[in-house]
C-alpha cells in the first residue's frame, strides 16, 4: 500500500481522529478539507467527518481525482444512526463506492478510531506466504547481523533485552544466563524481536521485526547441542562453565522487513512474510 492522506472536517475532534488513524496506518499525512490536496502523492484517502459536515460540499469537486483511490469514511458523532446515510450520500457524489465505512463515537473515540484503522488495514493486500524472494531478502539480512532487541512483557510491564541470536529456518535462538525477561516469557509466551541498520537516508533503509511464540531448551534436551554448535559454542566450553546457559527459541509467526531494496524490484518498501 502506498501513502495515505487523512482529510478531516476542520475541528479539533476530527483532527485528532485523522492524526491517530494516520499514525496507525503509517506512511500517512493529514490535512483539513480546506487545504489544497496533491492527490497524486496518495494511494488511499481517509475522510473523517463530524456533524458539521463541512467537507461534504467538496466531494463533487474532488470526484475526478478520487476514482482510482482506496477510500475510507469515518463518521464522528454521538450516535451511529446517520453513518450509512451520510456514506450513501458521499458515494452518490463520487459516483463510486467507499471501500470502508466506520462509526467513531464522540464518547469512545479512541477505541473506535483504533478499530476503524484496523478495519482499513485489513483491506490492504495481505502478507505474502510463499514469495521466496521476500524470504530470501529477510534471511540474507539476518545472516549479516547477530544482535537485536528481544521485547517481552506481561500486563503493564514491558522489557527490552539487547541479545545475540542465531537464526535457522524460521526460528531465532538466544543463549542467556537468565534474568528479568524470563519472568515475562514464563507468563506470556509471545515475544517480538527486532534488528536494524543504523539510519543514513531513506535510500538505505533496513529494519526487520519478527513476532512469534517462545519455548525453552535446556541442557539435556535433544536440540541443545545442535543449537550450541550453530552458535559456535563447544560442548567442552559448556561443560567448563560454572552456570547454565538457557536457550530461548522464538518460533516465528510473521516477519516484517522494511528495506529500500524492495523498491528496486517493484515491491512496496514494507513486506511481511507469514510462516
From TrEMBL:
Does the record's keyword annotation contain Nucleotide-binding? no
The UniProt transmembrane annotation reads 243-263
Can you name this protein? Pyridoxamine 5'-phosphate oxidase family protein
Species name: Megasphaera elsdenii CAG:570
**Domain (Pyridoxamine 5'-phosphate oxidase N-terminal) ranges:** 136-227
Q: Which domain of life is it from?
A: Bacteria
Keyword vocabulary terms for this entry = Membrane, Transmembrane, Transmembrane helix
Please give the InterPro entries that the UniProt record associates with this protein.
Cyt_P450_sf, Pyridox_Oxase_N, Split_barrel_FMN-bd
Amino acid at each position: 500500500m502506498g501513502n495515505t492522506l487523512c482529510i478531516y472536517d476542520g475541528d479539533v475532534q476530527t483532527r485528532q481522529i485523522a492524526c491517530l488513524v494516520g499514525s496507525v496506518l503509517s506512511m500517512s499525512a493529514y490535512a483539513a478539507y480546506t487545504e489544497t490536496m496533491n492527490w497524486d502523492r496518495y494511494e488511499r484517502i481517509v475522510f473523517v467527518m463530524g456533524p458539521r459536515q463541512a467537507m461534504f460540499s467538496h466531494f463533487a469537486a474532488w470526484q475526478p481525482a478520487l476514482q482510482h483511490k482506496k477510500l475510507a469514511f469515518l463518521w464522528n458523532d454521538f450516535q451511529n444512526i446517520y453513518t450509512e446515510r451520510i456514506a450513501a450520500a458521499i458515494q452518490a457524489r463520487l459516483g463510486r463506492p467507499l471501500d470502508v465505512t466506520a462509526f467513531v463515537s464522540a464518547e469512545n473515540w479512541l477505541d473506535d478510531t483504533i478499530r476503524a484503522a484496523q478495519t482499513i488495514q485489513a483491506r490492504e493486500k495481505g502478507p505474502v506466504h510463499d514469495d521466496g524472494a521476500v524470504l530470501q531478502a529477510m534471511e540474507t539480512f539476518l545472516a549479516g547481523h547477530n544482535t537485536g532487541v528481544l521485547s517481552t512483557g506481561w500486563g503493564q510491564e514491558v522489557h527490552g533485552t539487547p541479545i545475540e541470536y542465531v537464526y535457522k529456518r524460521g526460528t531465532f535462538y538466544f543463549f542467556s544466563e537468565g534474568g528479568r525477561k524470563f519472568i515475562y516469557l514464563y507468563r506470556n509466551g509471545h515475544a517480538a524481536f527486532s534488528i536494524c541498520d543504523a539510519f543514513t537516508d531513506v535510500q538505505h533503509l533496513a529494519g526487520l521485526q519478527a513476532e512469534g511464540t517462545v519455548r525453552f531448551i535446556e541442557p539435556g534436551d535433544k536440540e541443545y547441542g545442535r543449537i550450541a554448535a550453530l552458535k559456535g559454542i563447544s560442548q567442552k566450553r559448556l561443560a567448563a562453565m560454572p552456570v547454565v546457559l538457557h536457550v530461548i527459541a522464538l518460533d516465528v509467526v510473521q516477519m516484517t522487513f522494511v528495506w529500500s531494496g524492495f523498491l528496486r524490484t517493484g515491491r512496496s518498501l514494507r513486506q511481511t512474510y507469514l510462516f
